[in-house]
Amino acid sequence: MKPASDKFLTASGILAVLLVAAPLFAQSKKVRFSVSAISIAEVPFKIASVKGFYRDEGLNVETILIRGAVGLQALVGGSVDYTSASGATIAAAVRGIPVKLVFIGSAKPQFDLMAQKDIRSVAELRGKLVGISSRGGAIDLLTQAILQKNGLTPNKDVTSIVVGGQEETALALRTGRIAAGLFTPPRPPILEREGFNRIAYSGDYMATYPTGGIGVTDEKIKADPAEVLAFVKASLRGLLFAKQNRVEAAKIIGDYLGVKDAALSQQILDGYVGRISAAGSADEAWMKGAIEFTQKSLGGVDKEVAPARVFDFSFAQKAAAGLK
Questions:
Q1: Most buried pick, 52, 84, 257, 282, via CB within 10 A?
Q2: What architecture is the 112-204 domain classified under in CATH?
Q3: Pairing mode, if any, of strands 59-65 and 180-183?
Q4: How far apart are CA 245 and CA 257, in angstroms?
Q5: Distance between CA 306 and CA 94 in Å, rounded?
Q6: How far is CA 44 from CA 105, 188, 208, 277, in A?
Q7: CB 157: neighbour CB atoms within 10 A?
Q8: Positive or negative CA dihedral for 45, 96, 319, 221?
Q9: CATH superfamily, with its number, for domain 29-108+209-322
Q10: By C-alpha distance, which of 93, 323, 127 is closest to 213?
Q11: Could you tell me where the beta strands, DSSP code E, fall in the chain?
């Protein structure tokens, strides 16, 4: 039998370990983050997770795939702490719901207009069908903007038909049901390899469209600004890593998107890097443009909305300053 003193020392040692370990465990705070899709827009967040940037900021991030505006509903309902549904966040804020967009991965849309193999310009879409995901949505409005700026009248010179999401639109293009449609990476380079033509980049027609953002409630900003800053900072590190570490970032992108061809992964990354935001934020003119575009997509919302009601890029700006 061990002396009583040994028992005391053993118990004391265990207690000391627990006391030291407790703060380490306490540093990791569980947060839930909904992403809209497995797409190029989510790459900063995936890189931040893979590289341990969230862990560095004391966060244990659970990423949940919740498609479309349902992610925003989960945010408002408290089921998640953050959402990547940028458009839905802006739309909700414009309507008066107390949410803010606090980060953007890109200030421009990532969509490319891909067309049939015999079509080499937007003008050649005259008299043909283009696929969209829904009436009045972002893809519909972006498609209309591209057509109009190329001298074509939507639903007169070119007819839009609802075919569904990205996979359904790709199928419609491959089977010849539509002449063209808007796609986000990795689909454009894959379709190019199949012989289809890239005839327009939506960012050349719309410069105020957020991609890969972070939406959060006003309540969270007020109650825990330190956590919001930590989440934004880690995400910004993921964004900057994509720009500064091309080879490793391309591999992460390939694994995330299920692209096994290393050359294709690098091509996807190169296209993405040229379109992303430098610091996760944007200026007031951009914010006003994004609000106007959202109001147009909502329809009937034409009253002036102050950018401060929709955006709070102070976290991204502070994070960027701290990473210089």
A1: 84
A2: 3-Layer(aba) Sandwich (3.40)
A3: unpaired
A4: 18
A5: 9
A6: 7, 20, 19, 11
A7: 16
A8: negative
A9: Periplasmic binding protein-like II (3.40.190.10)
A10: 93
A11: 29-35, 59-65, 82-83, 99-103, 112-115, 129-132, 159-162, 180-183, 197-201, 214-217
Q: Cα dist. 233→54, 65, 239 in Å?
A: 8, 22, 10
The C-alpha atoms of residue 296 and residue 98 are separated, in whole angstroms, by: 20
Nearest to 104 by CA among 317, 253, 324, 323: 317
Give, in degrees to the nearest 5, the angle at Cα 78 between 164 and 60: 95
Q: What are phi and psi of 150, to 5 degrees?
A: -110, 20
Each residue of 135-180: pLDDT tens digit?
877 899 899 999 999 999 999 999 999 998 889 999 999 999 999 9
The pairing of beta strand 197-201 with beta strand 112-115: antiparallel
**Taking the domains of the chain in order of start, what are their residue ranges?**
29-108+209-322, 112-204
Residue linked to tokens 């939406």:
215
Q: pTM for the whole thing?
A: 0.85
Q: Which pLDDT tens digit goes with each residue over 256-313? A: 999 999 999 999 998 888 888 768 999 999 999 999 989 988 876 668 899 999 999 9
**DSSP code of residue 200:** E
Contacts of 239 (CB under 8 A, 6+ apart): 44, 47, 105, 276, 277, 280
